[in-house]
Amino acid sequence: MRAAMLDDITELRTFVRIVAAGSLSAAGREMNLTLSVVSKRLASLERRTDTRLIARSTRHLALTEEGQRLYERAQRILAEIDEAEEALAHGRAEPQGVLRVGAPVALGRMLVAPVCRDLVGTYPKISVDLSLTDRVVDLIDEGVDVVVRIGAPKDSGLIVRKLADNHRVVVGAPDYLALWGQPATPADLERHECLQYPGAGAFWRLIGPDGEAVEVRTASRLRSDNGDVAQDWALAGCGLIMKSWVDVQADVLAGRLLRVLPDWRSDAAPVCALFPSHRQLPTRVRLFLDAMANRLARMAVTPS
Q: pLDDT value at position 64?
């Protein structure tokens, strides 16, 4: 029984290495194994599971749907096995394995990337794959361990951990406000150039000091599918922007942007981490979550 179990783990490790390396021959070189041994292990795994896991051709290797599902689960299983073995050998679990993180571009560059850098510097056996994109990432399909987002999803099968409170606020460059004036009410925004991007389109919803909500239809001749570009336009004095405080805080504190309608802000848009439901979260993921929460706490994210 024990020998069979060890064979299963060896085949799983070989399968994961084949996928990561991109070919059987590359996996063999990385594992210091002959091509025939790698091929036999894959064939044994497919025979035992009665499932075709990899579609092979003369040019490239592609996972089948079943292979993709097994690859995602096998990565997590093997990481937990490695941590358990390390704990037995040294009396404590040393975090290790590949941490796959996704985040929006602006938030990722400013906050997530430094946390990843520090984790790798602190824990020699952890490596990080960080993907920055403003689109919604499918954690399961894309094999991502954790995604950091602004705003909690309304409907998701994922576990959500709030890392910090946050709101979107309206800001503008001093030069723009000197030229066009400070809006006194949300309705005044309709007479301003209001830069638009996916996080703040034509309709801006703002909550007042007494909890009243208003929705303003804004207009702009500058629109982008990238929030960083819109923020660059705001810094250049091209118009006002409604953006997460976590994104504009540094520019506001430095005086490059000024708060507009300081008593008004968006609905809550907390910084959240999303991850699949696991009975036991890998140590590297828990370390990342705690490090993100600590970094955000030091920033005092919520605007005054």
A: 86
